[in-house]
Each structure stands twice: as C-alpha cells, then as structure tokens.
C-alpha cells in the first residue's frame, strides 16, 4: 500500500487506537478511509478481546461491520454512543467539516450527534484553511425529492456558485440516498461563516440535512504523504506531530 491509501490507513488506525476502548458503543462512519478503521477495529477485537458494539451510518458502513464480523447495533438499542469515527471531505482550521461526498451525511450527522465524541480520520488532501477552498464539488445537501427544483432555485438565489443535482453513476437518473432522498451539491466558494450558512440551508423547507458539520469534531487525524500522522484539536488549531 502506498500514497493516499497508506495515508488513509494510518489516520484511521491512529483514530481507532486512541479512541476505542473496551465496552464502548462505536458509531462507524462511511467512505473509503473509515473502511481501514473498521479493519483495525476487527484486528483489536481479535487480538485484545475488546468488546464493542458498532452502529453504522449507512448501508456501506453496515456492510463493513458485518463483513469484518463486528457486533452490529443501532440507535434504538444504543441511543448513546461513546465515540463516532468517520471520514471527511474537507476539514478547516476550526475542525468544521464538509461531509457527504459519499452521500451519507444525514445518518452520519445523526450518529455523530448521539456520540460523546466525534473523531475524524482523513488523508492530507482533506486539510484546508477554510471550507470550500479545497473541496470544490460543493456542500452535499440531502433534500426531499418533490422539493429539488425549488431548492436548487433558492440555492442559486443565495449566490451559490454552482448548484448540481447529483446523478447516479451506473443507473440512469439521480443518486438516491439510503433514506430515499436526493442530493444537491452547492458550492458557495470559500465559506467564511459555516455556522451561519448551515443555519440558512437548514431553514429551506425540504432540506433534510447538509454536509456542513460545525463544531462537532473533537480531533482529526491526518495521514501524511511521508507516512506520519498529524492531529488537530480545537485547542491547538495548528498541526502537531
Ligand atoms: O462523508 C462521507 C460520506 O458521506 C465520507 O466520510 C467522506 O466522503 C470521506 O470519504 P473518503 O474517506 O472515501 O474520502
């Protein structure tokens, strides 16, 4: 393994090693980076006899949990989680995030909101000073299907630079979320006030959930190109080895 994949693996392993302890209920995020974290968690269960339960944030996360023979649970049985570990598309200096590149931000935000701690693992490409600087595809916004046209118009009126209905890759038509909704990607350029923008977007009728995660993450692990892992916390907004 080399390059970006190695960086993802290192970051995810570091997050799992530092934050998952015996007896914990763990929220499992979605995407290619957390997949390495699930493999590491399964290793620790085998090697250390760790007892954990895992709550997924998507169909993909559920598959990861079951394929790695980890105990699967849900928010009905575990409405309070000790930690949620997830990936991100972009992370700013204050640990605000853009998520939803994989279209799972709604369940990811619900699970994160039920966890005492949200920890993010990402490769070096996700590190950014301000949201919207590196991730140019736009903020993923899950919407109720009947509302997608008026919501797109409202986003344009809010001065979004690009507004796109996300289309499926191997099927004609739109990408349909795990919740049966659609996704609009809206790029607002560099975002100066993520909390304000999130509140504005949440105020549009038909918006289910945005990919802006403001003030939720407590620590981010970045896998670097040179094989090191750096971290960022809200208290030390700079990077430390
Ligand atoms: O938010 C997500 C899915 O909705 C993912 O966590 C995010 O897209 C990062 O994915 P990857 O680890 O594959 O880069």
TrEMBL record:
The EC number(s) attached to this protein equal: 5.3.1.6
Q: Does the keyword Isomerase apply?
A: yes
Q: Offer one Pfam family short name for this entry.
A: Rib_5-P_isom_A
Q: Molecular function terms in GO for this entry?
A: ribose-5-phosphate isomerase activity
Q: Which UniProt keywords apply?
A: Isomerase
Top-level division of the source organism's lineage:
Eukaryota
GO CC, any one term: cytoplasm
Keyword Iron on entry:
no
Recorded catalytic activity of this chain's protein: aldehydo-D-ribose 5-phosphate = D-ribulose 5-phosphate
Q: Which InterPro entries match?
A: NagB/RpiA_transferase-like, Ribose5P_isomerase_typA_subgr, Ribose5P_isomerase_type_A
Q: What family does the database annotate?
A: Belongs to the ribose 5-phosphate isomerase family.
Q: What is this protein called?
A: ribose-5-phosphate isomerase
